[in-house]
Amino acid sequence: MKKGDGDMYADQYRHISARLMRLDELNLSIQKVSGYTVEQLFQMFLSGYELKPPEYQSVENISKVVGAKVMNELSVFQRAIATWGEDAQMKMVLEEMSELQKEICKLWRGKDNRDAIAEEVADVEIMLGQLKVMLDIGGDVGHHKTTKLLRLQKRLEGQG
Ligand SMILES: [Mg+2]
Questions:
Q1: Which candidate, 126, 159, 132, 127, places its Cα nearest to that of 145?
Q2: What separation in Å is there between the alpha carbon of 141 and the centre of ligand 1?
Q3: What class, spelled out in words, does domain 56-159 have in CATH?
Q4: Which of 49, 58, 83, 132 maximizes the CB count within 10 A of its CB?
Q5: Ligand 1 centroid vs 101 CA: distance in angstroms?
């Protein structure tokens, strides 16, 4: 059967409407992820607006999100300690610190291993988090950190 002009137009119409539907779906998923319509994002982009995910739009939301992340981290630390035991996790603190030391030594020897260092810093931070939970010293560490940072800041200002 030969296609007439009407069929050709119908085919093109179906093709265009299918593409429009796909665009609509894309718009909807962009809106779902960012919280903004494509048009809004474009306007914001044109006006130089700093894009932030909707969850960070207010101070209350920031503290909620940060709080949830801290709680989540704490529960992962607690579960790790419960799973492998305090002894094993204490040893892991030292193991991860020595892995970081090793990578810093390689940097000194001229290797560009910033990625490896970043990975080991993350490992050490995770293990220090568990150490604070195991010894229940999180609050004390925070206190010392604030005091020491202030002291350091004063010393640096004195240098100027
Ligand atoms: Mg490691």
A1: 132
A2: 23
A3: mainly alpha
A4: 132
A5: 10
